[in-house]
Design brief:
By secondary structure, the chain is an alpha/beta fold. The chain contains 13 helices and eleven strands. The protein binds N-acetyl-L-norvaline and phosphoric acid mono(formamide)ester. Phosphoric acid mono(formamide)ester binds next to helix 2.
Protein backbone atom coordinates (compact mmCIF):
# COMPACT_ATOMS: atom_id res chain seq x y z
CA UNK A 1 0.00 0.00 0.00
CA UNK A 2 1.17 3.54 -0.77
CA UNK A 3 2.17 5.25 2.46
CA UNK A 4 1.46 8.91 3.19
CA UNK A 5 3.50 10.45 5.99
CA UNK A 6 2.34 14.03 5.39
CA UNK A 7 0.31 15.98 2.87
CA UNK A 8 1.74 19.41 2.24
CA UNK A 9 2.24 19.12 -1.52
CA UNK A 10 0.86 17.26 -4.54
CA UNK A 11 4.25 15.49 -4.59
CA UNK A 12 3.23 13.63 -1.41
CA UNK A 13 0.84 11.58 -3.59
CA UNK A 14 2.48 8.40 -4.90
CA UNK A 15 -0.23 7.51 -7.43
CA UNK A 16 -2.64 10.24 -8.50
CA UNK A 17 -4.95 7.90 -10.43
CA UNK A 18 -5.24 5.52 -7.47
CA UNK A 19 -6.04 8.30 -5.03
CA UNK A 20 -8.68 9.78 -7.38
CA UNK A 21 -10.35 6.35 -7.70
CA UNK A 22 -10.25 5.93 -3.94
CA UNK A 23 -11.82 9.36 -3.39
CA UNK A 24 -14.62 8.39 -5.81
CA UNK A 25 -15.12 5.19 -3.81
CA UNK A 26 -15.37 7.19 -0.57
CA UNK A 27 -17.92 9.50 -2.18
CA UNK A 28 -20.18 6.45 -2.68
CA UNK A 29 -19.18 4.64 0.52
CA UNK A 30 -18.76 7.58 2.87
CA UNK A 31 -18.83 5.72 6.17
CA UNK A 32 -17.02 2.55 5.07
CA UNK A 33 -13.90 3.32 7.10
CA UNK A 34 -15.44 4.61 10.36
CA UNK A 35 -13.42 2.18 12.54
CA UNK A 36 -10.14 3.56 11.12
CA UNK A 37 -10.50 6.88 12.92
CA UNK A 38 -11.80 5.57 16.24
CA UNK A 39 -9.91 7.23 19.12
CA UNK A 40 -7.89 9.29 16.62
CA UNK A 41 -7.87 13.08 16.75
CA UNK A 42 -7.16 15.73 14.15
CA UNK A 43 -6.14 19.22 15.31
CA UNK A 44 -6.78 21.97 12.77
CA UNK A 45 -4.98 25.28 13.21
CA UNK A 46 -6.14 28.32 11.25
CA UNK A 47 -3.86 31.33 10.88
CA UNK A 48 -6.34 32.64 8.25
CA UNK A 49 -10.07 32.54 7.44
CA UNK A 50 -11.77 29.57 5.81
CA UNK A 51 -15.23 28.27 5.04
CA UNK A 52 -14.84 25.21 2.78
CA UNK A 53 -11.52 23.87 4.02
CA UNK A 54 -12.56 24.08 7.65
CA UNK A 55 -15.97 22.44 7.27
CA UNK A 56 -15.10 19.86 4.60
CA UNK A 57 -11.99 18.66 6.44
CA UNK A 58 -13.94 18.45 9.69
CA UNK A 59 -16.64 16.49 7.88
CA UNK A 60 -14.05 14.20 6.26
CA UNK A 61 -12.54 13.46 9.67
CA UNK A 62 -15.98 12.77 11.17
CA UNK A 63 -16.82 10.48 8.23
CA UNK A 64 -13.73 8.46 9.22
CA UNK A 65 -14.82 8.33 12.86
CA UNK A 66 -12.18 10.82 14.08
CA UNK A 67 -12.42 13.45 16.80
CA UNK A 68 -11.81 17.04 15.69
CA UNK A 69 -10.18 19.99 17.50
CA UNK A 70 -10.12 23.38 15.76
CA UNK A 71 -8.22 26.50 16.81
CA UNK A 72 -8.14 29.92 15.18
CA UNK A 73 -4.54 30.20 16.25
CA UNK A 74 -3.79 33.77 15.14
CA UNK A 75 -6.69 35.15 17.20
CA UNK A 76 -6.74 32.77 20.16
CA UNK A 77 -3.16 31.51 20.51
CA UNK A 78 0.10 33.16 21.57
CA UNK A 79 2.01 34.97 18.86
CA UNK A 80 4.55 32.45 17.58
CA UNK A 81 8.26 32.90 16.87
CA UNK A 82 9.73 31.01 13.89
CA UNK A 83 13.39 32.18 13.87
CA UNK A 84 15.93 29.75 15.30
CA UNK A 85 17.97 31.40 18.03
CA UNK A 86 15.66 34.43 18.27
CA UNK A 87 15.94 36.68 21.31
CA UNK A 88 12.23 36.83 22.01
CA UNK A 89 11.88 40.40 23.28
CA UNK A 90 9.16 41.41 20.82
CA UNK A 91 5.54 40.34 20.34
CA UNK A 92 6.13 36.59 19.98
CA UNK A 93 5.45 34.83 23.29
CA UNK A 94 6.10 31.25 22.25
CA UNK A 95 8.40 29.46 19.80
CA UNK A 96 6.99 27.10 17.18
CA UNK A 97 9.48 24.54 18.50
CA UNK A 98 7.49 24.08 21.72
CA UNK A 99 4.08 24.82 20.22
CA UNK A 100 4.35 22.13 17.54
CA UNK A 101 5.59 19.49 19.99
CA UNK A 102 2.90 20.37 22.53
CA UNK A 103 0.04 20.23 20.00
CA UNK A 104 1.39 16.93 18.64
CA UNK A 105 0.77 15.34 22.06
CA UNK A 106 -2.93 16.15 21.77
CA UNK A 107 -3.56 14.79 18.28
CA UNK A 108 -2.72 12.14 15.67
CA UNK A 109 -2.86 14.46 12.65
CA UNK A 110 -2.02 18.18 12.60
CA UNK A 111 -3.59 20.29 9.85
CA UNK A 112 -2.58 23.91 9.26
CA UNK A 113 -3.76 26.87 7.18
CA UNK A 114 -1.17 29.60 6.77
CA UNK A 115 -1.41 32.02 3.84
CA UNK A 116 1.47 33.75 2.10
CA UNK A 117 2.48 37.07 3.64
CA UNK A 118 3.09 38.38 0.08
CA UNK A 119 5.83 40.73 1.25
CA UNK A 120 8.90 38.47 1.46
CA UNK A 121 9.02 36.03 -1.46
CA UNK A 122 11.87 34.07 0.11
CA UNK A 123 9.97 33.48 3.38
CA UNK A 124 6.85 32.48 1.46
CA UNK A 125 8.57 30.16 -1.04
CA UNK A 126 10.64 28.61 1.78
CA UNK A 127 7.29 27.90 3.45
CA UNK A 128 8.55 29.37 6.71
CA UNK A 129 5.50 28.44 8.81
CA UNK A 130 4.60 25.07 7.29
CA UNK A 131 8.22 23.90 7.24
CA UNK A 132 8.63 24.73 10.94
CA UNK A 133 5.52 22.74 11.86
CA UNK A 134 6.64 19.79 9.73
CA UNK A 135 10.07 19.97 11.38
CA UNK A 136 8.91 20.15 14.99
CA UNK A 137 5.59 18.28 14.97
CA UNK A 138 5.81 14.62 15.92
CA UNK A 139 2.62 13.68 14.02
CA UNK A 140 1.78 13.88 10.28
CA UNK A 141 1.08 17.41 9.00
CA UNK A 142 -1.60 18.28 6.43
CA UNK A 143 -1.73 21.57 4.53
CA UNK A 144 -5.05 23.38 4.55
CA UNK A 145 -3.38 25.91 2.17
CA UNK A 146 0.10 27.18 2.83
CA UNK A 147 2.08 30.09 1.42
CA UNK A 148 2.74 28.46 -1.95
CA UNK A 149 0.30 25.57 -2.30
CA UNK A 150 -3.22 24.32 -1.71
CA UNK A 151 -2.89 20.59 -2.37
CA UNK A 152 -6.31 19.59 -0.96
CA UNK A 153 -7.92 22.03 -3.39
CA UNK A 154 -5.90 20.72 -6.33
CA UNK A 155 -6.77 17.11 -5.48
CA UNK A 156 -10.44 18.15 -5.34
CA UNK A 157 -10.10 19.79 -8.73
CA UNK A 158 -8.67 16.74 -10.51
CA UNK A 159 -11.35 14.55 -8.92
CA UNK A 160 -13.99 16.96 -10.28
CA UNK A 161 -12.40 17.06 -13.74
CA UNK A 162 -12.30 13.24 -13.81
CA UNK A 163 -16.02 13.15 -12.91
CA UNK A 164 -17.04 15.59 -15.64
CA UNK A 165 -14.59 14.99 -18.49
CA UNK A 166 -16.16 13.61 -21.66
CA UNK A 167 -13.02 12.80 -23.63
CA UNK A 168 -9.77 11.05 -22.73
CA UNK A 169 -7.58 14.17 -23.06
CA UNK A 170 -9.62 17.30 -22.28
CA UNK A 171 -8.28 20.79 -22.85
CA UNK A 172 -7.95 22.56 -19.51
CA UNK A 173 -7.25 26.29 -19.29
CA UNK A 174 -6.07 27.95 -16.11
CA UNK A 175 -7.09 31.58 -16.55
CA UNK A 176 -6.00 34.47 -14.39
CA UNK A 177 -8.85 36.88 -13.59
CA UNK A 178 -8.87 40.27 -11.86
CA UNK A 179 -9.34 40.83 -8.12
CA UNK A 180 -9.07 44.04 -6.09
CA UNK A 181 -6.83 42.53 -3.38
CA UNK A 182 -3.45 40.83 -3.56
CA UNK A 183 -4.01 37.06 -3.40
CA UNK A 184 -1.46 34.25 -3.06
CA UNK A 185 -0.27 32.04 -5.94
CA UNK A 186 -0.97 28.92 -3.85
CA UNK A 187 -4.13 27.66 -5.56
CA UNK A 188 -2.70 28.21 -9.03
CA UNK A 189 0.64 26.57 -8.12
CA UNK A 190 -0.96 23.36 -6.86
CA UNK A 191 -3.37 23.27 -9.79
CA UNK A 192 -0.37 23.44 -12.15
CA UNK A 193 1.37 20.67 -10.17
CA UNK A 194 -1.60 18.37 -10.53
CA UNK A 195 -2.22 19.18 -14.21
CA UNK A 196 1.39 18.23 -14.97
CA UNK A 197 0.61 14.74 -13.65
CA UNK A 198 -2.64 14.42 -15.63
CA UNK A 199 -3.51 13.26 -19.17
CA UNK A 200 -4.71 16.67 -20.33
CA UNK A 201 -3.98 19.40 -22.83
CA UNK A 202 -3.07 22.14 -20.34
CA UNK A 203 -2.70 25.87 -21.07
CA UNK A 204 -2.19 28.78 -18.68
CA UNK A 205 -3.37 32.23 -19.71
CA UNK A 206 -2.58 35.45 -17.86
CA UNK A 207 -1.53 39.02 -18.61
CA UNK A 208 2.18 39.87 -18.91
CA UNK A 209 3.68 40.33 -15.45
CA UNK A 210 1.61 37.54 -13.89
CA UNK A 211 4.00 34.69 -14.76
CA UNK A 212 4.00 32.08 -11.99
CA UNK A 213 7.20 30.60 -10.57
CA UNK A 214 8.93 29.05 -13.60
CA UNK A 215 10.17 26.16 -11.43
CA UNK A 216 6.48 25.19 -11.22
CA UNK A 217 5.28 26.11 -14.72
CA UNK A 218 8.34 24.62 -16.41
CA UNK A 219 7.18 22.79 -19.57
CA UNK A 220 3.63 24.19 -19.50
CA UNK A 221 2.17 26.19 -22.43
CA UNK A 222 1.56 29.86 -21.60
CA UNK A 223 -0.79 31.80 -23.91
CA UNK A 224 -0.94 35.54 -23.25
CA UNK A 225 -4.06 35.95 -25.42
CA UNK A 226 -6.96 34.88 -23.21
CA UNK A 227 -9.47 34.53 -26.05
CA UNK A 228 -7.08 32.39 -28.05
CA UNK A 229 -6.46 30.19 -25.00
CA UNK A 230 -10.21 29.67 -24.56
CA UNK A 231 -10.68 28.21 -28.06
CA UNK A 232 -11.81 24.57 -27.82
CA UNK A 233 -11.35 24.47 -24.04
CA UNK A 234 -13.32 21.82 -22.14
CA UNK A 235 -12.68 23.32 -18.70
CA UNK A 236 -11.97 26.91 -17.71
CA UNK A 237 -10.35 26.96 -14.28
CA UNK A 238 -10.26 30.54 -13.03
CA UNK A 239 -8.14 32.05 -10.28
CA UNK A 240 -6.64 35.38 -9.41
CA UNK A 241 -3.11 35.62 -8.10
CA UNK A 242 -0.82 38.52 -7.38
CA UNK A 243 2.45 38.98 -9.26
CA UNK A 244 5.28 36.54 -8.55
CA UNK A 245 7.98 38.65 -10.23
CA UNK A 246 6.85 41.98 -8.77
CA UNK A 247 6.13 40.01 -5.65
CA UNK A 248 2.67 40.38 -4.11
CA UNK A 249 1.68 43.31 -6.31
CA UNK A 250 -1.65 43.87 -8.06
CA UNK A 251 -0.72 45.13 -11.54
CA UNK A 252 -4.13 45.19 -13.25
CA UNK A 253 -7.54 46.03 -11.80
CA UNK A 254 -9.66 46.68 -14.90
CA UNK A 255 -12.19 44.04 -15.93
CA UNK A 256 -10.67 43.07 -19.28
CA UNK A 257 -9.69 39.61 -17.96
CA UNK A 258 -13.02 38.86 -16.21
CA UNK A 259 -14.63 35.57 -17.25
CA UNK A 260 -17.70 36.49 -19.30
CA UNK A 261 -20.43 34.62 -21.14
CA UNK A 262 -19.02 35.99 -24.39
CA UNK A 263 -15.58 34.48 -23.70
CA UNK A 264 -17.13 31.17 -22.64
CA UNK A 265 -18.76 31.00 -26.09
CA UNK A 266 -15.28 30.60 -27.60
CA UNK A 267 -14.84 27.29 -25.77
CA UNK A 268 -16.06 23.78 -26.45
CA UNK A 269 -19.06 24.36 -24.16
CA UNK A 270 -16.53 24.36 -21.31
CA UNK A 271 -17.26 23.74 -17.67
CA UNK A 272 -16.44 26.67 -15.39
CA UNK A 273 -14.40 25.98 -12.26
CA UNK A 274 -13.27 28.11 -9.31
CA UNK A 275 -12.11 27.07 -5.84
CA UNK A 276 -14.28 29.73 -4.13
CA UNK A 277 -14.65 32.17 -2.46
CA UNK A 278 -15.21 34.22 -5.61
CA UNK A 279 -16.11 37.87 -6.19
CA UNK A 280 -19.05 37.92 -8.58
CA UNK A 281 -18.86 40.33 -11.52
CA UNK A 282 -15.19 41.01 -10.76
CA UNK A 283 -13.63 37.59 -11.35
CA UNK A 284 -16.60 36.06 -13.17
CA UNK A 285 -19.93 37.30 -14.51
CA UNK A 286 -23.12 36.11 -12.83
CA UNK A 287 -24.22 34.57 -16.14
CA UNK A 288 -21.21 32.20 -16.09
CA UNK A 289 -21.17 31.16 -12.44
CA UNK A 290 -24.97 30.71 -12.50
CA UNK A 291 -24.92 28.73 -15.76
CA UNK A 292 -25.45 24.97 -16.09
CA UNK A 293 -21.76 24.64 -16.93
CA UNK A 294 -20.60 25.97 -13.58
CA UNK A 295 -19.07 23.28 -11.34
CA UNK A 296 -18.24 25.45 -8.34
CA UNK A 297 -20.77 23.84 -5.97
CA UNK A 298 -19.80 20.32 -7.06
CA UNK A 299 -16.14 21.23 -6.52
CA UNK A 300 -16.80 22.32 -2.95
CA UNK A 301 -18.67 19.06 -2.32
CA UNK A 302 -15.62 17.12 -3.49
CA UNK A 303 -13.45 18.92 -0.92
CA UNK A 304 -14.83 16.44 1.63
CA UNK A 305 -13.74 13.36 -0.32
CA UNK A 306 -10.32 14.77 -1.19
CA UNK A 307 -9.71 15.45 2.51
CA UNK A 308 -11.16 12.07 3.44
CA UNK A 309 -8.90 10.11 1.12
CA UNK A 310 -5.85 12.00 2.40
CA UNK A 311 -6.76 11.44 6.06
CA UNK A 312 -7.48 7.77 5.32
CA UNK A 313 -4.05 7.32 3.70
CA UNK A 314 -2.37 9.01 6.65
CA UNK A 315 -4.25 6.94 9.23
CA UNK A 316 -3.30 3.77 7.34
CA UNK A 317 0.41 4.67 7.23
C1 LIG B 1 -7.45 32.73 -0.87
C2 LIG B 1 -6.37 32.55 -1.94
O1 LIG B 1 -6.52 33.07 -3.03
O2 LIG B 1 -5.37 31.85 -1.68
C3 LIG B 1 -8.06 31.40 -0.52
C4 LIG B 1 -8.59 30.59 -1.65
C5 LIG B 1 -9.04 29.24 -1.27
N1 LIG B 1 -8.49 33.59 -1.39
C6 LIG B 1 -8.84 34.72 -0.82
O3 LIG B 1 -8.23 35.15 0.13
C7 LIG B 1 -10.01 35.46 -1.41
N1 LIG C 1 -11.43 26.85 -1.49
C1 LIG C 1 -11.11 27.08 -0.21
O1 LIG C 1 -10.07 26.65 0.31
O2 LIG C 1 -12.06 27.79 0.49
P1 LIG C 1 -11.90 28.34 1.98
O3 LIG C 1 -10.84 29.41 1.96
O4 LIG C 1 -13.27 28.87 2.32
O5 LIG C 1 -11.50 27.22 2.88
Amino acid sequence: MNKMKKYTSISDITSLSTIIDEAMYLKKNTFAFQPLGKNKTIAMLFFNPSLRTRLSTQKAAMNLGMQVMIMNISNDGWVLEFEDGAVMKNSAAEHVKEAAQVISQYCDVLAIRTFAGLTDRKDDYNEKVMTAFVKYATVPVVSLESATGHPLQALTDVITIKEYQKMSKPKIVLSWAPHPKALPQAVANSFVDVMKLSEVDFVITHPKGYELNTEITNGVTIEYNQEKAFENADFIYTKNWSSFTDYGKVLITDNSWMITEKKMQLTNNAKFMHCLPVRRNVVVEDAVIDSENSLVIEQSNNRTFAAQVVLKKILES
